[in-house]
């Protein structure tokens, strides 16, 4: 298993080491469920010398899913909020990606994602007819992070930033979540916030040398 982990890790690292190419862009995707919680009583507003007071009690309103797509070298990201995270939902998100105006001239998009059972080209054929599924499939090269190696996915890092900066407190609906993610995404893109990934294969062979097979001459 260590050999399989190392092989996939180095494949992902090779992708991250590619120079920027608008015709072969590298995009990372990840997803995160958000628990929706509603207040049972309206919080008391801020007053001079007093903090905002919130009742500990809340009601559960189900969950929604946040999809994160980020192009590390392009200083671009896109966030979508849906009620589910099924294979069909993933397929629709991939179609939105390949049809985005930003990638109109791209020959193929290299997509780094976690190795979940829904993250599969077969999901395209569940969602669309064969012609459309093949069209989308031909525009995407899937690169999977290793099992227990989702930290290699830059989109996971970006989701962490989104959660800390914009999704604090209780959010009661998909709309409330989207109202937070839209301005966050817009501001981050306008600021051209990029990603400086510095964990290379050379560093991995030093820091994670215990994972590499021991070859005896």
Describe this structure in words.
With 217 residues, this protein is an alpha/beta fold. The protein starts with a helix and ends in a 10-residue tail after the last helix. The model has no long low-confidence stretch (mean pLDDT 90).
Beta-strand fraction estimate: 15-25%
Structural class: alpha/beta
**Adjacency order of strands in the biggest sheet:** 3-2-1-4-5
The proportion of residues forming helix, as a percent range, comes to 25-40%
The backbone outline, from C-alpha atoms, is: globular
Brief overview, please?
The chain is of the alpha/beta class and 217 residues long.
Key attributes of the depicted protein:
single chain, 217 residues, 7 helices, 5 strands
Can you lay out the helices and strands and say which pair or pack?
Layout (H helix, E strand, L loop, with lengths): L1 H15 L9 E14 L18 E14 L4 E7 L4 H12 L10 E5 L7 H7 L2 H8 L2 E5 L9 H13 L7 H17 L10 H7 L10
Parallel strand pairs: 1-4, 4-5
Antiparallel strand pairs: 1-2, 2-3
Helix pairs in contact: 2-3, 3-4
């Amino acid at each position: 298993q260590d050999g399989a982990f190392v092989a996939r890790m180095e494949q992902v690292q090779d992708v991250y080491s590619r120079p920027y190419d608008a015709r072969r862009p590298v995009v990372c995707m990840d997803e995160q469920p958000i628990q929706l919680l509603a207040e049972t009583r309206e919080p008391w507003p801020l007053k001079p010398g007093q903090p905002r007071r919130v009742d500990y009690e809340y009601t559960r309103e189900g969950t929604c899913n946040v999809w994160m797509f980020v192009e590390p070298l392009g200083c671009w990201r896109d966030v979508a909020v849906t009620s589910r995270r099924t294979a069909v939902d993933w397929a629709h998100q991939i179609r939105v990606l390949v049809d985005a105006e930003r990638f109109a001239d791209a020959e193929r998009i290299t997509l780094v994602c976690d190795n979940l059972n829904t993250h599969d080209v077969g999901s395209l054929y569940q969602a669309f007819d064969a012609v459309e599924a093949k069209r989308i499939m031909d525009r995407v090269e899937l690169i999977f992070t290793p099992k227990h190696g989702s930290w290699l996915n830059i989109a996971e890092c970006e989701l962490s930033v989104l959660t800390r900066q914009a999704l604090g407190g209780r959010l009661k609906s998909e709309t409330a979540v989207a109202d937070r993610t839209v301005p966050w995404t817009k501001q981050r893109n306008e600021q051209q916030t990029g990603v400086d990934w510095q964990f290379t294969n050379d560093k991995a062979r030093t820091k994670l040398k215990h994972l590499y097979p021991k070859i005896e001459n």
